[in-house]
Give the backbone structure.
Amino acid sequence: MSPSIRALLRGPLPVTAPLVLNPLMARMVEAAGFPAGYLGGGSTGYQKVALEANLNLTEMCQAALDIGAVSSLPLILDGACGYGDPMHMRRTIGMSEAAGFAGIEIEDQLVPKRAHHHVGIEHMIPAELMAAKVEAAVGARRSPDFLIIARTTPCGRAPWTTPCDAGRSTGRRAPTCCCSRWPTSRSSFGRSRSASADRSCTSPAAAGWPGSA
């Protein structure tokens, strides 16, 4: 049985989870020796000749079932905005766990999801609302090994207030780790890491910073 991503994050090295969109890609990622995979929303939308904003939880879970039928690779779900508000998190997390995902990434964007980020426009929700989503997601998971990743807007486009910060300031449960898209410095990356429950941080830009994860 593959170790959980939470267990991998406690190891000495960063966890690299390449993009996985289908069973063949999962088998290739496994064969290359990577410990985990990432089912991306943006790429899935492009693959379907649509945008991520048009995807739903059911089709992402179906993709995980197809992958899980031939691969034991732990998968992280790009869960967009969590497919709803705090009240919807119980079903989102329940379905994600049932489909075999090892974790989910939830971002602080408006629902229904917009597509304006392609032209540099973000539709952020208030930090308090995002903190409530994270709290609901953490409370809804059945396995403590299921990873909850709180993802915040690119640091260069908005004031730096992570959902992790908001959650801790109100005494709410923090996510397992925080994801900062395109952090502008090592210090901003480190701040996101220190705000998470397991002092873990994910970022598509972190690979170029030795020792940062």
Remarks:
- The chain has one domain: 5-208.
- Confidence is low (pLDDT under 50) at residues 205-213.
- The chain is about 35% helix and 10% strand.
- The first strand starts at residue 37 and ends at 39.
